[in-house]
User: Fold this.
Amino acid sequence: MKRDLKRSNAPIFWSLFGAGGMLAALIGPMLVFITGIAVPLGFVLPEDAMSYPRMLAFAQHWIGKGFLFVVVALFLWHAAHRIFHSLHDIGIHAGAGAKFACYGTAMLGTLVAAWALLAIGF
Amino acid sequence: MNAQNPRRPYLRPMVGWWRRNPFFVEYMVHEATALFVAAYAAVLLVGLLRLAQGEAAWNGFLDALRTPLSIGFHVVLLVAIAYHCWTWFVIMPKTLPPILVGGRRLTPAAITGGGLAVAALASLALFGIVWGMAR
Amino acid sequence: MADIAETRKRIEIEVLRYRPEQDTEPFLQTYELPFTDDMSVLQGLQYIKDELDGSLSFRWSCRMAICGSCGMMIDGKPRLSCKTFLRDYYPGRVRVEALAHFPIERDLVIVIDDFIDKLESIKPYIIPKTPRTLAEGEYLQTPAERDVYEQFSSCINCLLCYAACPQYGLNPEFVGPGIMALLHRYNVDSRDGGAAQRMEVVNAEEGVFNCTAVGYCSEVCPKHVDPANAVNQNKTLSAKDYFLRFVRPKGDCR
Assistant:
């Protein structure tokens, strides 16, 4: 083992990965079903469940805003961490560049989500 | 005697390592579910932007969700994210210290089953809340 | 021996050879030999060395899956050759190669210096919580306290988990599964007080976060140590240490 061991900052990204992965595991499939299949088809849920007035009210409420932010942000950070490691697994060791591309995208998505949710108002 | 060191250790290349074993192929598949988690987050993000742009933009987004292409895409997302859910809880026992219940260790199967049960409950609760709000 | 050759079934063993003084790179050499249903792959290699080709080099010792010397890739999977049987591959050809992810010294012999260095670095011995004299007598430990570390103490240093771990193959600086199992074995032993000293290795860039939970290490472990569990438990412990270090400073963590 090298004598001069440097502490890794991986815990930050790993924790976000874990939180996002747990959230996606608990409610991911049902969210996809509701928003992408059930409501658009009017299957077991009414077609107007995601109407503009309803969605606006949801996103303007602090609970709805918080929920939407947490889902989008954590899913992105989970994916960024896993994709970064998968690139390494398939032989792409672009180091800092790949790290910046993956986590940078997650950060960008997080900021855009925050901006959109603020723009939606209260 | 030859003063040169005769040792010449040979390091084999790692190229194609995951294709050589079905265990690793499955590993790459469950890691790849992250692409679909990212894709769904992107869909939600686009939705948030459309919502912020007003009613006409949001209705355009809803129209897009109703297309066969979108429905088909979401079916693919559903399968991938459901596989993520399954493999997440199969791996979970590996990440936990021993959990004692009634003096005996919980088996990996019990931990996986417990996790999947919580996911099922959370999913049902989510559905219930949405159904209740949509009435 | 002619007796045996006439009456027994025959099997082909294909071995990855490498003689550094005469080969530029490894190559496959096939041997055909008689075998019985009770013969291990190790016994097959021993027949080859005794009767067919004395130049074949490989490590072995106890031939009963406890010394950890005879680890090799058998049909692409990390196995102890003394615990793998020719009958399970017959009539197919058995491919035997040096353990993956390690440099090949010669034939089936690998360079294990990296493992030994790492083993020394994690202080694999009980570090008492407080200095203790012989007069104080033996440590007392309950069955429950022993259960927490017992499986990790079963490690025979066979290195099959390192051959299984693609992250070690991709980055040999990674501390790896077996060492983490041994580190964890001491950290959670109620007699030990040295966890803080070992955390530096866990938290380092070469530490536990190189692991991506492939889990193959635990699949191949012949002693059911479950090194994946040791590594992944320590991710949580390391993260806790990372985030709480300013709240509860321990002095020696950078």
The mean pLDDT of chain B is 95. DSSP finds four helices and two strands in chain B.
